[in-house]
Amino acid sequence: MREKISKLINVYKKYGFLGFLNKLKMHIKANYIDRISLEVLFNKRKYKKIIKDILTNNEYERIILWRSSFGYNVPLFQRPQHIANNLSKNKCLVFYEVTDTTDKIKTVQFHQKNLYLINFNNIFLNNILKKEIKEIKKPRYLQMYSTDWKMSVKDIKKYIDDGYKFIYEYIDDLSPEIAGTKQIPKNIIEKYEYAMKDKNVYIIVTADLLKQDVIKHRGEKNLAFATNGVDYNFFQSFDNDFKFDKEFQKIIDLKRPIIMYYGALAKWFDYELIKKIARTNKYSIVLFGIKYDESFDKNIKKDKNIYFLGSRDYKVLKYYASKAALLIIPFLINDITNSTSPVKIFEYMALKKPILTTNILECRKYKSVVIAKTHEDFLDKIEPTIKRINNKEYINLLDKDAKDNDWENKAKAIIELIKNGEQ
């Protein structure tokens, strides 16, 4: 209960009173009111046929239930959706959990071949799905994020008793800052401890520090490494008719080099570095994303040359980033940032734009990323890095790193791991 109260307080700080009330209303509706679906209750035969048809009319080698309260149709189109998309393209039948607050899907919806968006919160539909899957003699898996705090170990063990294997995606340092609570939620801790003890759990890690943590606890059995990645082809095509909003167009019209970051604005963001760049009066610093906590408002007031433009949908964000002279990741260096594989770094690569970051462990792996170890080093490297746009060899390096980290390769690493168990 304390965890939920802490989360509610954080939501209030992030969205204000009216935003808080709206979020609370949607949460209550999704997690309590819509759990009992009369539509499914009175049409069980209909939904049993729908599920049976999905299970019998698709070609696949295994079934994967992706369970976490991330949602599918959200502006932050990231690892969960990309992994699900690519698993479905590689002979996996994926049922992806939606949230009523973002997806508005009451039951089940076809998304693409072998990928269905489903409301697991719908009790009657969930029961039908479980019963019908039992009739299918193919490997089945439960997959979820390490940061999920909704499902308990008890829930996971029920799936295992029904013949499922458990895929645990260890994607971030476990911390209250990421959870948005004062303490790490109990379900997150218990799932982590369970995964570290039971070597039958398949663990996917996204960063070297996380891999070392797993090996320390249980060795390398049933362990795969798959950093975040990029949908390479998506970032190669642009609509020439796209028009920017007036707010961003005004920044373009200033005709100063644009230094851009997009992503969460949180306690691990180096606001002091951003202010030092702004004080040079040489650049327009554009920040896209969400205020993950109160840190932005505490650190950035009305600082000249810094433009916070809120979030943009994944589908259009690439147009804004294409106008940047330099794409950056200005994170403080700590356990959170050193355990993070930033999705944006691979998207930056695919955009073929010069990249400059602070000394983040996972960013140091790539020759296409310029690393700065101090604030002074960062400031000194801005101009030389911007000029690398004219270096064909550097652009080719960005392109190669992006292709190597396509999401398809990440999904294949997961499939290769679980295939070994199937054999």
Cα distance spanning the termini = 43 Å
Form type? globular
The total domain count is 2
Q: Count helical runs.
A: 18
Structure description:
With 423 residues, this protein is of the alpha/beta class. The protein folds into 2 domains: 2-230 and 408-422, 3-Layer(aba) Sandwich (Rossmann fold), CATH 3.40.50; 232-405, Glycogen Phosphorylase B (Rossmann fold), CATH 3.40.50. The protein is 44% helix and 15% strand. The chain has helices at 2-31, 38-41, 44-56, 79-88, 123-134, 153-161, 176-179, 186-197, 208-218, 246-253, 271-278, 295-299, 314-321, 335-338, 343-350, 375-386, 392-404, 407-422; strands spanning 62-66, 92-97, 108-112, 115-118, 140-145, 164-170, 202-205, 223-225, 258-262, 284-288, 306-308, 326-329, 355-358, 369-372. The strands form 2 sheets. It has an 8-stranded mixed beta sheet, sandwiched between helices. The protein has a 6-stranded parallel beta sheet with strand order 11-10-9-12-13-14, with helices on both faces. Strand 9, helix 11 and strand 10 form a beta-alpha-beta unit. Helix 3 (44-56) packs across helix 5 (123-134) and helix 4 packs across helix 18 (407-422). The radius of gyration is 22 Å and the shape is globular. The two termini are 43 Å apart. The model has no long low-confidence stretch (mean pLDDT 91).
